[in-house]
Hints:
Blueprint lengths: L1 H22 L23 H36 L6 H31 L3 H10 L39
Amino acid sequence: MKKVSLKLATVLMFVVLMSSAAFAQPGSGNGKGMADGTYPGISNLSAEQEQQIEKLRTAHQKEMLPLRNQLGEMEAKLRTLTTGDKVDMALVNKQLEDISGVKLSMAKKREAHKQDVRKLLTEDQRVQFDMHAGKGKGGDCGKHGKGQRGGGQGNGNGNGYGNGNGPRCNR
């Protein structure tokens, strides 16, 4: 049982470290979109759609902010737990599990937000949205602009959905 726990802890630690490294990488892209309230690749958003999407975005940001803050605190605690002279792997493993729980919650909220936005789109707009989702050029509330948490996918200065890791799509 201890061997399984140690292997699991090692794998989880590797995943956390690799994801942190990935977030630190600079992106490539024009940095436009979402951060400035637009959705690249989606044509003909009506004023009403833009207004509804902005309301969803604001609510999503408010919902995600405490989770992002909590995640930052948990990751800082993990660094503290893993850099001492005597590392308590039971505490490290517990912290990793807690971090995973927050990340899972954030991922679920991001996907719910994405689906809420999709519901506001016409069939043609949804196809455009889905084709650009996760490609760094629009759609999936990610990979646009520089954002607050660094890296981002591009050189934009927006604080909106800047991501790769901007404000983590308000993760």
